[in-house]
Amino acid sequence: MMRTSFASWLGLIVAPFVVLGAQSLNYALVQVACAQRSTLALDVVSAVAFLFSVAATVLAYTRWRLMSRARDADGASAAFFAQMAMLAAALSALIQLMMWFPQWLLSPCR
Question: Which UniProt keywords apply (predicted)?
Fold first, then answer.
């Protein structure tokens, strides 16, 4: 029976949900950022989501490298699962970075 690790689940499930949560929270914080004339709250939320996605990518990558050395069928399945987790977390980090980029250029009051 294949045993998956917590690192794989972080990359596959949690990282995309963190990015979606950051987008929702940033949307809710636009009014506050406009009233304060500061994008600090938006930047903190985006930075935390980006760093979490990068950390999940690194954890899934180390799990993938560890499992890719296994020679049995369960090890190959775990390696594939970890590889998919790494790719999903990396894509989440890229998406978060792309959603963060307009915050550097546009005012929240527009």
Answer: Membrane, Plasmid, Transmembrane, Transmembrane helix
pTM summary value: 0.90
Six-digit token pair at 87? Answer: 């790719």
Residue 1 has a pLDDT of: 39
Q: Which residue range(s) make up the domain with 52? A: 6-105
Assigned domain for 1 exists = no
Q: Which amino acid is at 80?
A: F
The answer to whether the CB of 27 falls within 8 A of the CB of 36 is no
Q: How many folded domains does the chain comprise?
A: 1
CA–CA–CA angle 52, 58, 61 (5° rounding): 140
**Structure tokens given for 103:** 């915050």
Question: Do 60 and 35 form a contact (C-beta atoms < 8 A)?
Answer: no
Q: Judge whether 67 lies within some domain.
A: yes
Under 8 Å between Cβ of 85 and 12? yes
Intervals of the chain under pLDDT 50: 1
Structure tokens at 85: 């987790």
